[in-house]
TrEMBL record:
<keyword id="KW-0560">Oxidoreductase</keyword>
<dbReference type="InterPro" id="IPR044638">
    <property type="entry name" value="ALDH7A1-like"/>
</dbReference>
<dbReference type="Pfam" id="PF00171">
    <property type="entry name" value="Aldedh"/>
</dbReference>
<keyword id="KW-0520">NAD</keyword>
<dbReference type="InterPro" id="IPR015590">
    <property type="entry name" value="Aldehyde_DH_dom"/>
</dbReference>
<feature type="active site">
    <location>
        <position position="249"/>
    </location>
</feature>
<dbReference type="GO" id="GO:0004029">
    <property type="term" value="F:aldehyde dehydrogenase (NAD+) activity"/>
</dbReference>
<dbReference type="InterPro" id="IPR016163">
    <property type="entry name" value="Ald_DH_C"/>
</dbReference>
<comment type="subunit">
    <text>Homotetramer.</text>
</comment>
<dbReference type="InterPro" id="IPR016160">
    <property type="entry name" value="Ald_DH_CS_CYS"/>
</dbReference>
<feature type="domain" description="Aldehyde dehydrogenase">
    <location>
        <begin position="12"/>
        <end position="476"/>
    </location>
</feature>
<dbReference type="InterPro" id="IPR016162">
    <property type="entry name" value="Ald_DH_N"/>
</dbReference>
<dbReference type="InterPro" id="IPR016161">
    <property type="entry name" value="Ald_DH/histidinol_DH"/>
</dbReference>
<protein>
    <recommendedName>
        <fullName>aldehyde dehydrogenase (NAD(+))</fullName>
        <ecNumber>1.2.1.3</ecNumber>
    </recommendedName>
</protein>
<comment type="similarity">
    <text>Belongs to the aldehyde dehydrogenase family.</text>
</comment>
<dbReference type="InterPro" id="IPR029510">
    <property type="entry name" value="Ald_DH_CS_GLU"/>
</dbReference>
Length: 485
């Protein structure tokens, strides 16, 4: 069993606290992945001081050269893809096909960032005045605090750090305490690719100590956070008070709508993957299935059959469809929503319990669960569960479906299955979400597409796409007067 270190001040170091926590495999908690630093505020302080030195150096490196480092990062990730997918499944639980996809998103983000190094454009603007030149250009902002969740251990940190680094910033990175091994490997790769050591700082530990110290540090002007709504609110309050630049990405209560004219086979594949992939632990997970009355009964019966055949297990074993939940507290939260659903008189048609399989007793497994007859406005229909629980709602019309889709406090993704092209376009305009998929599930992202939600899902910033480069850079105006020449 390995004991891991922080990366602070350009070297691998032990935490100032001398204290470590254990990281265990959620599919089998007797399997100890490693011991990681339980760092404190002093480690964050040293990391920020060092990152400031790194920033002074890195901001003067030409953007295309910064892009070259990220291209090498992408190459190294390609080479280590299988190894990373395996260690990620071990510490996080989702099956290998999903962790491979997670690494691939990191690779795509690296290559996309590399090309942006040659495209970090500003504008020239015609001046109102004679003999003047006006222009805008982009400058880095400073030390960025990167705080990430457990569900996409590689993709999400890369969505944040690669554009931040490309723009010339330095990063203080705190991976989620549940997936520190993937965070460790990512930093190893950045260093091997030639990133100057003080530009990246890795501080392992917990949110209330390390995360909070980063957010509250006066010399960290940028925070990028993805995680729960409750934590996001705390982070948001602090950043507001301290006037920090903040990107917040939090919850979702995403719906897949299936209308009477839909391709039902396609819609069935979509909801199975959307609701139960990553054991429902995605901010884009399909948590509500809105079925039009004409296909409701048939679709529900088919779904029940297919979902009951999903195989739970260790994500590193062939044939596993659904892995465990990340911890015991998550499983208890899911159980509490099963109780809530029953109290609200929803109809439990599948699952609702811990599985009985002998090989599943050491992990945080929970059966794929489906409630039908869920009422719009009930807690089951409104609140984020972050587990394999799907609520089915029956509607008469597309308009009713659209209204129910919009009637929640979150607004990340939505999905509509229909063959009616006019309705599809209307949905794109009408549905209050950052992303609407037509004839595709509520999940999925591409490195060069802006990702993010409306309403209480976030604060309006986007990850990915050109938009993220605006977040990590500052517009500066240059104004030249040559009338004296
Ligand atoms: P999740 O359970 O989806 O990972 P959390 O919101 O619990 O969501 O955690 C997301 C990230 O935020 C983790 O890296 C966690 O350690 C960190 N975190 C938790 N509490 C705080 C806090 N008070 N301040 C800053 N970061 C925090």
């Amino acid at each position: 069993m390995t004991t891991f270190k922080n990366f602070i001040g350009g070297e691998w170091v032990e935490p100032s606290t001398g204290d470590y926590f254990e990281n265990r495999n959620p599919a089998d908690t007797t399997d100890l992945v490693g011991r990681f630093p339980r760092s404190g505020a002093e480690d964050v302080q040293r990391a920020v001081e060092s990152a400031q030195r790194g920033f002074a150096l890195w901001r003067r490196t030409p953007a295309p050269a910064r892009g070259d480092v990220l291209r090498r990062v992408g190459d190294l990730m390609v080479r280590r893809k299988e190894e990373i997918a395996d260690l990620m499944t071990r510490e996080m639980g989702k099956p290998l096909n999903e962790t491979r996809g997670d690494v691939q998103e990191g690779i795509d983000t690296a290559f996309y960032a590399a090309t942006e190094g040659r495209r970090l454009f500003g504008h020239t603007v015609p001046s109102e005045l004679r003999s003047k030149w006006a222009m805008s250009f982009r400058r880095p902002v400073g030390v960025c605090g990167i705080i990430t969740p457990f569900n996409f251990p590689m993709a999400i940190p890369t969505w944040k750090m690669f554009p931040a680094l490309l723009c010339g910033n330095a990063c203080v990175f705190k991976p989620a305490e549940d997936v520190p091994h993937t965070g460790h490997v990512l930093v190893e790769i950045l260093l091997e690719a030639g990133l100057p050591p003080e530009v990246i700082q890795l501080v392992h530990g917990f949110g209330e100590t390390v995360g909070k110290s980063i957010v509250e540090h006066p010399d960290v002007p940028v925070i990028s956070f993805t995680g729960s709504t409750e934590t996001g609110r705390i982070v948001g309050e602090t950043c507001g008070r301290m006037h920090k630049r903040l990107s917040l990405e939090m919850g979702g209560k995403n719906a897949q709508i299936v209308l009477d004219d839909a391709d039902l086979d396609l819609a069935l594949e979509g909801v199975l993957w959307g609701a139960f992939g990553t054991t429902g632990q995605r901010c884009t997970a399909t948590s509500r299935l809105i079925l039009q009355k004409g296909i409701h009964d048939r679709f529900l019966a088919d779904l029940e059959k297919r979902a009951s055949a999903l195989r739970l297990g260790d994500g590193r074993k062939d044939g596993t469809d659904v892995g465990p939940l990340i911890h015991e507290a998550s499983r208890e939260k899911v159980e509490s929503y099963v109780e809530i659903g029953q109290k609200e008189k929803a109809d439990l048609v599948l699952g609702g319990e811990r599985p009985s399989g002998k090989d599943l007793q050491n992990g945080h497994f929970f059966q794929p669960t489906i409630f039908a007859g869920v009422k719009a406005g009930s807690r089951l229909e409104q609140e984020e569960i972050f587990g394999p629980v799907l609520s089915v709602i029956r509607v008469d019309s597309a308009d009713e479906a659209f209204r129910i889709n919009n009637d929640v406090k979150y607004g990340l993704s939505s999905s509509l299955y229909t063959r009616d092209v006019n309705l599809a376009f209307r949905a794109l305009e009408t549905l209050d979400n950052g992303i609407t998929y037509i004839n595709a599930p509520t999940i999925g992202a591409e490195a060069h597409l802006p990702f993010g939600g409306v309403k209480q899902t976030g604060n309006g910033h986007r990850e990915g796409g050109w938009e993220v480069y605006e977040f990590y850079s500052e517009t500066k105006v240059g104004y030249l007067d040559y009338s004296g020449t």
